[in-house]
Amino acid sequence: MGGSGGALGGGAKQLPHVVVVEGLDFASGAVHGALMEVIERGQVTDRNTVYPCPTPFLIIGLTSNSPQRRQSMPPQLLERFFLCHTLSSTLNRCVVTYPGKVPLLRFEDLAQLASTTLGTLHVEQDILYYMRNLITALRNHPGVSTGVSPKSGTDLALACRVLALLSGTGAVMPDHVALMIDKVVAHRLFPVHFSVYVSPDARQALQRLTCVDIVADVVGCIPAPV
Fold first, then answer.
1. Tally of CB atoms within 10 A around 121
2. Highest mean pLDDT (candidates 50-54, 176-180, 204-208)
3. How far apart, in whole angstroms, are the C-alpha atoms of residue 59 and residue 53?
4. What are the phi and psi torsion angles at 113 (to 5°)?
5. Residue 147 burial (C-beta neighbours within 10 Å; 0-12, 13-18, 19+)
6. Residue 88: Cβ-neighbour burial (10 angstroms; 0-12, 13-18, 19+)
7. What is the rounded distance in angstroms from the CA atom of residue 148 to the CA atom of residue 144?
8. I want to staple 10 with a disulfide (CB 3.0 to 4.6 A). Which of 49, 64, 119, 213 is the partner?
9. Whole-model pTM over 0.85
10. What is the DSSP letter of 145?
11. Band of pLDDT at residue 4, cut at 50, 70 and 90
12. Is 52 buried (19+), middle (13-18) or exposed (0-12) by CB count in 10 A?
């Protein structure tokens, strides 16, 4: 999917609308830094030339299933990834072709959804309180060291609104929150047993506890609004 971004300081250069980075948890610090620049500033720097990213622009990072490898990535970078989805099976490499190259979703339709339809979607006050209580409980969970930032709550609310829109319900429901919270928040958490300050006994006792388990524990403890 080619973009139409032009250079700010040189010749024209096309940037893609979607970038897939494989092995992100094994990448060097230079790669992580470059991704941070792209995400934060919406641009790519090549020597003395700056290329703006097209709109829309999406980065998909592929990592291993090792929690230890993922936790080795900069937390500032993990915080910038909106969603994380875990595959239960091996990712098969294939090329999918569509007849006549008809897009599944046009950029114009995507822009209209973001600017109009999503903005009118209603969120009840008790749903906002429910999300707030979940985020607060995660901050206070004994298995969490850091990682539950204010951005986590903002992104969770946005993800729930998008899911409600795609579901055709017209409003955010508690089920939307319960379904999205682990995908939005779990990869940002830093478990306490990964800390260098935790005792060996505590690390041994908690070594099988994943971030998804922590989120599931919180969702099971916080009552959902009726």
1. 15
2. 176-180
3. 11
4. -60, -40
5. buried
6. exposed
7. 9
8. 49
9. no
10. E
11. very low
12. middle
